[in-house]
């Protein structure tokens, strides 16, 4: 068993694991991620997304995809864990714990104040795992999301991207 920083040759495995996670979370059609997009975001000229992979017998069986966040309250960065996933056949061997411990070590080494993520409220197995490693639910906070037409409608109320000094990505 090993956990390591993702390399370019891991991109197809990470995309595969993201699709497996979406299937598990009952949203298989919600994934639009491609290998090309992920490779650019992880390894392109301005990476803002990072990933670690878990290997078992040389095969990638788990992943943690994350990015750096910032807390105005602490004045320090943190890690937002976007996806944590270990294939069902490889669970129970400590790989999920190793992935989280690795991210905790990144936080400690860089002076980050938080490691945060969301979990579906029906995912009792994941909730039990997170409680076992010491995570605490933020019951007073709920995640809010805007996407698609709603996001576009709100964006249309802002000045143009050029007036905001934004360039296309």
Report on the structure:
With 169 residues, the protein is α+β, with helices and mostly antiparallel strands. The model has no long low-confidence stretch (mean pLDDT 94). The protein has one domain (2-155): Gcn5-related N-acetyltransferase (GNAT) (Aminopeptidase), CATH 3.40.630. The chain contains 5 helices and 5 strands, in the order E-H-H-E-E-E-H-E-H-H. The protein has a 5-stranded mixed β-sheet, with helices on both faces. A hairpin with a 2-residue loop joins strand 2 and strand 3. The termini are far apart. The chain has helices at 11-24, 35-43, 95-110, 124-132, 148-155, and strands spanning 2-5, 50-56, 59-71, 76-86, 114-116.
In short:
By secondary structure, the protein is of the alpha+beta class. The radius of gyration is 17 Å and the shape is globular.
List the helices and strands and how they pair.
Elements: E1 2-5, H1 11-24, H2 35-43, E2 50-56, E3 59-71, E4 76-86, H3 95-110, E5 114-116, H4 124-132, H5 148-155
What key attributes describe this structure?
22% strand; 169 residues; globular; alpha+beta; five-stranded mixed β-sheet; Aminopeptidase; 5 helices
């Amino acid at each position: 068993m090993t956990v390591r920083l993702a390399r370019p040759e891991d991109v197809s495995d990470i995309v595969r694991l993201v699709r497996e996670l979406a299937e598990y979370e009952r949203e298989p059609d919600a994934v639009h991620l491609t290998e090309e997009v992920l490779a650019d975001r992880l390894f392109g000229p301005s990476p803002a997304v990072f990933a670690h992979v878990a290997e078992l017998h040389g095969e990638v069986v788990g992943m943690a995809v994350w990015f750096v966040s910032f807390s105005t309250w602490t004045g320090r960065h943190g890690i937002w864990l976007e996806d944590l996933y270990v294939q069902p056949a490889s669970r129970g061997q400590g790989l999920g714990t190793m992935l989280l411990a690795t991210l905790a070590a990144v936080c400690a080494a860089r002076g980050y104040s938080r490691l945060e993520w969301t979990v579906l409220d029906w995912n009792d197995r994941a909730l039990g795992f997170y409680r076992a490693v010491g995570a605490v639910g933020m019951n007073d906070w709920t995640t809010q999301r805007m996407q698609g037409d709603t996001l576009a409608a709100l964006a249309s109320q802002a000045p143009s991207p050029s007036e905001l000094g934004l360039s296309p990505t």
